[in-house]
Amino acid sequence: MQEPIWREIEESIAFHMIDVGTDKEAKEALLAFWGEPFMMALENRGEHVPRYLIHVKSQSELISRLQDIFVRCRLKTG
């Protein structure tokens, strides 16, 4: 398993993309949106966490968009 790559991105999302099956082109993702109404505050901690995680299947059109964001962010330094 590869280590996560943490990057600041312009979009108000966070996602975790994984390879599924033996075909490297087959990807799925867990997608979270930041901001209301998609976030919730943890009481007494001042932290915000995603309220919903969306499972994006490999045949979704969103996968290619997330791959574009991943490649663009991976090329950033630091």
In short:
This protein has 78 residues and is of the alpha+beta class. Helices cover 17% and strands 32% of the residues. The chain contains 1 helix and 5 strands, in the order βββββα.
Please give a structural write-up.
- The chain is α+β, with helices and mostly antiparallel strands and 78 residues long.
- It has one domain.
- Helices cover 17% and strands 32% of the residues.
- It contains one helix and five strands.
- The strands form two sheets. The protein has a three-stranded antiparallel β-sheet, with helices on one face. The chain has a two-stranded antiparallel ribbon with strand order 3-4.
- A hairpin with a 4-residue loop joins strand 3 (39-42) and strand 4 (47-50).
- The longest helix is centred in the C-terminal third of the chain and has 13 residues, at 62-74.
- The radius of gyration is 14 Å and the shape is globular.
Distance between the termini: 21 Å
- Kindly give the count of domains: 1
User: Poorly predicted ranges (pLDDT <50, ≥5 residues)?
Assistant: none
Instruction: Report the sheet with the most strands, covering strand number, pairing sense and barrel closure.
Output: 3 strands, antiparallel
* Number of H- or I-type helical stretches: 1
Which series of helices and strands comes N to C? EEEEEH
Radius of gyration: 14 Å
Return the structural class.
Answer: alpha+beta
Shape: globular
- Strand order in space, largest sheet: 1-2-5
The overall pLDDT average reads 84
